[in-house]
Amino acid sequence: MGEFELIRRYFLPLAGQQKSRTLILGPGDDCAIQRIPAGRDLVFSMDTLVEGVHFPRNYRPDYLGWRALAVAASDLAAMGASPECFTLALTIPTADEQWLAGFAGGLRRASKAFGLVLAGGDTTSGPLTLTLQVHGTVEQGAAIRRTGARPGDLVAVSGTLGDAGAALDYLNEANPSPDIAAVLDRYHSPRPRLALGISSRGVASAAVDVSDGLLADLEHILEASEVGARIDSARIPVSPHLKRLKGDAALGYALRSGDDYELCLTIPAECWRTAPDAIRNELSVIGTVESRPGLVLDGKPCGADTGFDHFKGSP
Amino acid sequence: MGEFELIRRYFLPLAGQQKSRTLILGPGDDCAIQRIPAGRDLVFSMDTLVEGVHFPRNYRPDYLGWRALAVAASDLAAMGASPECFTLALTIPTADEQWLAGFAGGLRRASKAFGLVLAGGDTTSGPLTLTLQVHGTVEQGAAIRRTGARPGDLVAVSGTLGDAGAALDYLNEANPSPDIAAVLDRYHSPRPRLALGISSRGVASAAVDVSDGLLADLEHILEASEVGARIDSARIPVSPHLKRLKGDAALGYALRSGDDYELCLTIPAECWRTAPDAIRNELSVIGTVESRPGLVLDGKPCGADTGFDHFKGSP
User: Fold this and answer.
1) Where is Mg(2+) 1 bound in this sequence (chains A, B) (predicted)?
2) Pairing of β A294-297 and β A228-231
3) What's the CA gap between A305 and A312, in Å, rounded?
4) Which of residues 99-118 of A touch B (CB under 8 A)?
5) pLDDT band at B198 (very low <50, low <70, confident <90, very high)
6) Where exactly are the structural domains of chain A?
């Protein structure tokens, strides 16, 4: 099967499965064309997944298709952007039809679930690597940046943290218990917080998605905003599954492991009080922003080496 | 050196070296933000380069930095788009500072030469692979597509063809002759035809960049436009260097080898007569579009297997 046939059979159907409000030319030409409505900004982010680094070797292709788009879409959620379309650069060792069908299936489900239409990309042969770029839009000036946190703001996180990181200990489990199955699902099928991100525009002062670990990602907000924060470990949301599986170690996963793709937001106290239930019900307040730089956990300063770095490895 | 330090040292300077008219938030947040002026469309394209597939192993990093952006920018030229910004996904085995300095240097020169500002990206560890996405803009509806060729239009190409393909025979030449040095330069330092692309808006009916080989890329226009073409090998532009190096074989390189990044355009005859010298002087007319499908070279039909396909290899 040649490159063009491969694209035609597995990827063009993704371009046609749903309409995008802004994509006016999809795959098949030298470039794609998007028309951004007047009064809106284009918001975009690029993410790479490498086999053996970001996902295990021989990883199920349908999981990979979903995960790849979910990971990229999570950055749109963190800016409060409405999803529009995406591009895919797929590098694969051989054109294995069974693998491609599985991958395209996972990608198609994610594409529909997140409202992201395939706009174009590139298919090449080489070691298994994916790069996706996602495009969203926001009203001009309304994107939630990392720079807006101010002393006195509350620090909040969505959902529960640590499940996806704990899942790495169980990837080869043949007969997973219900608790193990629950954390594995968090790893294989992350659900980017797109609706929450959109609802948080005009409410949150800063946002980041939790991809590298809560402490590491919160540090990104603090550095960009030139502030510090004090957080309380007893308030970090941990799932009952993780508690049962890891006991006292659960907190470490929730603080330091990545791949959960929840949102960490800072919210001015007055905005929190008046925030709609759609936001309040999704979030746990875990601390407050302070003017003094640095991150303080249960009264003790946290070091800088708090998350995953590709050229240093895990801490 | 960690991932963030690496980005800070080698890539953030590229984001700051020049202003973009449309990029309002560059690297450092979850997403970048671009504001497309009212009345213009966003035009974008993604390209991947894999070590050992798209460029030789141990390729000079400064050449790679230039080439990677040139290859991607060439797709903007083919749409007639004005360059704006780009994203870079760089996957490298180790954070080798000498390599990174060379790569960033080549990329910086290309970025300035093409008017493309670094908007963001991702840096990961793994087998050497690059994916770039370039963003340009055109007046709404003015992008040159592959679908617009009509019977009677002239077929034209810019510059000369085949040099970059011939260069592959001399990549390890220790003391290149002037002719060999000239074709090597075409391979190492391609110059995407951005100015010609912009000038061709409103003149050309269809366009493609010559990345896989003239016959293969012209076929893309013919298929998309549902037409055929008749071209004359005597009119294919070949450089004196290529003629001296390859003699009678030069034409084969010009027809079938890729990597030249010239433009192949179709132009209605009346537009050609009135086209400005800026366009006429850059182009050679090599044939005409016909209603009967298929590509005819010197009166004989050409087969479909005319260019490079990643999952079949070279013809």
Assistant:
1) 47, 122
2) parallel
3) 10
4) none
5) very high
6) 3-139, 146-298
